[in-house]
Predict the 3D structure of the following.
Amino acid sequence: MCELLLPNRIPGSCNYSKESAQDYLNPFRSSYIPTESPDYSNISTDSFDRYYFSNYNPPIDNGREYSDQICNFLQNIEIGRKAPKTTIISKENRAALIDWMLWICYEFGFVDETFFSAVSIIEKILLKIQVNINSLQFYGASAVWLASKLHETQTPSVEDFVNLCNYEYTSNQFCLFEKELLQACNYDIIDPTADNFTSAFLSQIPSDSNFNDCAKMLIHASVFSPSHAYMKPSHIGLAVFTLAKYITRYPMNLIVLPRSLQYFEEDELNSATISLIEGLKIAKNNTDSTFRVKFAEFLQYNSIDIDFLKNKMQEYISTNSLSSTLES
């Protein structure tokens, strides 16, 4: 192993210890006053890196400290944005559309925020413009392309999306539809999603990888429900933790989560939980879905009886309250 050498020094010529060498190289010591530019060519990079990485303290994550403020801010945005209960496409077509969008995000390696923003955008599309059922693939790809510009550091070109659609649409059609979509939404396409609340909630509690994987799986399943568009994202996030606690037998008290919200409605939580179970059933029953590929490992080692789960949650609703399950 190479020795850590002082700049412009010959090894063995002076009685410098390794500690004194490290002190010399530490620019944060109080007595450090450089008199000349040191020559680092004789310094072992192995020792140099080992010293700095051994003394590296990662920055403090302030997500937990500000999670309540984040939830309150997101809830203020979601007020008044509840979509009307209008069915534009069938349950089967919606499931195929959402899974197609999930496949695009999975194929490109997009972050989860891109997928959930794309779902929010497609729900706006289905409500604000005249929908051609035969063009759902085009709508889904356009929504993902637009969402990727909001969250990704490297956005695929429009030609990549043309290729995904087997060249059934041109790049010019994608660009024109993007303009039409933005004008129909009055350029207001950024809404809080249930994934935003789930991330804020996770920062407030200690949890293991199995619980985190379960919550991640459930939040993805929630968007497959036909009623997802008119559920409050904050309460979908609570429903995720209600079910994840039951499925994984999580022992911790989670009552801190509803208390972190500015407002909380028990009936809304009940509806969101049943809606989430319905979405999970739709996503899980499609054996060829991208959802099953993405969460294959969790589903393999965690058996979930969806009908039993639904009956159990309905039993809680009729005899007690779902929010009380977060305390037990």
